[in-house]
Specification:
The complex is a heterodimer of chains A (about 230) and B (about 45).
Chain A lengths: L10 H19 L5 H33 L2 H33 L7 H22 L3 H15 L2 H11 L5 H9 L1 H4 L1 H43 L2
Chain B lengths: L1 H38 L8
The chains are: A mainly alpha (about 230), B mainly alpha (about 45).
Chain lengths: ~230, ~45
């Protein structure tokens, strides 16, 4: 793996662009009349992005398994921590949305459980890589888990229809009409989250590629010095 | 309603803190790997 495998991305620009998008989205969405609308401008983008990140990770894992593509492996591994972050955001905002409706922070329905499963799958990919010593076997095992775990995505997306779960967010949205009023703000926050994810994932992949290179170089130097 | 508003603002604050923390950790990691690359006289980007 060489440094040129990931051409230098303007990470600082990406980070500031994401901050501007998120700040603008929040500035337009936060003055909304009800609290559910304020939470929704965070919950919906985070939930969509966590699914999107898992799809990207599964596709890259498939490429890594099929063609043993190193860059695909590197990117797939770089997605998992950011996926955990956005799944966590989706989970805690979901809990905050449900509290006023049910009086409970957590309800064991298919939607919530499959969202929780998504976080465990991201964590499982990271844990599996850390558990296996041989990096190639670790990458293959993590890619396989990412592919198998993709079966959770349709469950998450269609849970509302398959199990006739009441989507509390949808009920609250239709009651107060915030879905329309905050759509623009949510779109801006989503743009900010996506830009942030691109920044974090490319930065992490690049750091990992650099670390491999430094490690390889130090090993060569050590072998040269060793009598 | 005031309490729920506080939940919403808390969630926004917590999200921003988590994203900022991840960015700082990545920046520290990038700086560290760039320093090690400089020590080994290889062109580490580290940005």
């Amino acid at each position: 793996m060489t440094l040129t495998a990931f051409p230098a991305l303007p990470h600082t620009t990406l980070a500031w662009a994401s901050a501007v998008f998120i700040a603008t989205g929040l500035a337009t969405g936060l003055p909304a009349a009800d609290a559910a609308a304020r939470l929704a401008i965070l919950h919906s983008p985070a939930a969509w992005l966590s699914c999107g990140l898992y799809v990207a990770m599964a596709v890259l894992a498939a490429c890594a398994l099929a063609w043993r593509h190193r860059a695909a492996t590197l990117l797939a591994n770089a997605i998992a921590p950011t996926g955990i972050v956005f799944t966590l955001v989706a989970l805690w905002t979901q809990a905050l949305l449900r509290k006023p409706v049910h009086g409970l922070w957590w309800v064991w329905d298919a939607e919530a459980v499959s969202q929780l499963m998504l976080m465990f799958l991201f964590g499982g990919v990271l844990a599996l890589r850390a558990m296996i010593d041989d990096p190639r076997r670790a990458d293959r095992a993590a890619a396989l888990l990412a592919l198998v775990g993709a079966a959770n995505l349709p469950v998450l997306y269609f849970s509302v229809y398959w199990w006739h779960v009441l989507s509390h967010e949808a009920v609250a949205a239709s009651a107060s009409g915030w879905a329309v009023r905050t759509a623009g703000a949510a779109a801006l926050v989503l743009a900010g989250f996506v830009t942030y994810a691109v920044f974090a994932i490319s930065k992490r992949a690049r750091c990992t590629a650099d670390e491999y290179r430094v490690l390889a170089h130090s090993t060569i130097e050590f072998q040269e010095v060793k009598p | 309603m005031i309490a729920i508003d506080m939940y919403a603002l808390g969630a926004v604050a917590a999200t921003l803190v988590v994203l900022a923390a991840e960015s700082v950790l990545l920046a520290i990691r990038g700086r560290d790997v760039a320093r090690r690359a400089r020590q080994l006289h290889i062109a580490g980007d580290g940005r």
